[in-house]
Amino acid sequence: MLSLTHFAKSYHNRLVIQVPDWQLPAGIHWVKGTNGSGKTTLFRSIAGMLPFDGQIVLNGQWDCRRHPVPYRLRVNYSEAEPALPGFLTAWELIQWVGTAKQASGMQIDELIDAFGIRDFMKTPVGTYSSGMLKKTSLVIGFLGDPLLILLDEPLVTLDQQATETVSRLIRRYHEQGVSFLLSSHQDFNLTSLPVQSVWRVQEQTLTQEPLTSGPV
To answer: Which Gene3D superfamilies match (predicted)?
Structure first.
């Protein structure tokens, strides 16, 4: 599903993370790591938001750099700490991303109601709490018809109802053939998710960890 070859990302000549060869099959995968370990840098690179060395290919046919438009159409990303333009409303952002992702109006309405953001989505993002920002980012993360969704710290600042919504949507989209990369520096409390593999970002690289029995 996802292939990283000779991948490396540095800032000002300082290596942040290096992955010589990572062949990730379709499924749900959990990426662990402490704050500052390079998880978000890895996710942003896979999402096509950062320049990097090496190659990232989706499904053996869409190269992140050589095919940027079809690649980004199939890879969605919800940030850990969303930095959204404060002068825009959630509605404007969702409509803009929804158009780019070719999302239907029905899907947009369903996600807005699922995360309960309809009451505030017409007010400027700059007035939002951290929880409101997170819900808006998660709506954007599920838009369109992706093959891969990256959810960076998806449970931070969420209430119990929104947490259950995330879990339900992951299960439903996965049943429809969507793969997930879930990032967290804490133990996941999303229940009943068929997590296929667990990885840890540390010491500037990525290593696989044993998969515990039962839901992660």
So the answer is: P-loop containing nucleotide triphosphate hydrolases
CATH number at 130 reads 3.40.50.300
Q: Work out the number of other CB atoms within 10 angstroms of the CB of residue 176.
A: 8
Query: Which pTM was predicted?
Result: 0.94
User: Which amino acid, residue 33?
Assistant: G
Q: Which two tokens stand for residue 57?
A: 């290919």
pLDDT band at 107; cut points 50, 70, 90: very high
* Euclidean distance between CA atoms 143 and 149, whole angstroms: 10
Q: In the numeric block, which tokens belong to residue 135?
A: 């819900």
Asked if residue 131 belongs to a domain, the reply is: yes
Q: Rounded distance, CA 177 to CA 28, Å?
A: 10
Instruction: List the one residue out of 186, 183, 141 whose CA is nearest residue 40.
Output: 183
The answer to whether residue 216 is domain-embedded is no
Give the pLDDT score at 191.
54
